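Hey, can you fold this one?
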Amino acid sequence: MDNRPIGVFDSGLGGLTVLKEIINLLPGESAVYFGDSGRAPYGTKSKETVVKYTFQNMRFLLNHDIKMVVIACNTMSAYSFRQVVKSFDIPIVEVIQPGAVTGARETKNKKLGIIGTPATISSGAYDMAVNGIDSSIEIFSKACPLFVPLAEEGREWWENDITLRIAEEYLIPLKQSGVDTLVLGCTHYPLLQNTISRVMDKGVKLVSSALETAKVVKNTVTDNNMQRNVQLKPVYRYYTSDSVEKFEPLCSAILGTEITSAERVDIEKY
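Sure. Predicted structure:
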């Protein structure tokens, strides 16, 4: 038994899609969430910058006596995961392998689409992960750099005509390639899932790295006997490096519950 919280961090709001799935699968667990919206998006930044930010985020969360960490960002997972695992003695879950495993399992015609930030796509992390599972799968990747800022703009942007037109520009080539499964290789992208579904054929299976990562978190907690005392009420704490006034309503919209206790952090101190 371990009553300490689970730490979750992302470049902004996208990691809340992971946290939401964790809460659904592990309703008794407490959590500390940090969203680095003040420096988002990460997907257009250099590897060196992303690694620096990842380590700062890790050090911030470790100050909250967490029992494990979830890197709820595909860009950070692609660029920083191996270094972070070597540097910190704590269970760490990333988001790429879970999505790759499910994508490889779900595709029936061996044509798998992967969308993500420019950094995630250019890293080749998903290609390597999928090829390690099934080298016969043909991978069609596409960077969608505008999806993250659109997701961060708020609910009114998730399904409007502008977002639909941008999604068509990005996704129609993937649709024409004949993929039957599409991995949403960024935790922000489930916020745009309805728009993405409108562009792709109804028969195309969408794989959320958020849900698949939450399943790995649950298994990690269970397999290591890290469950929280079920008689204790879970506690959730939220932090952002940007405006709390902007963060709280978007956080509430994503999680489906009102959040009014977020705090602003000067992440550069870490």
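The two ends are 30 Å apart (CA to CA). Let me know if you want another pass with a different chain boundary.
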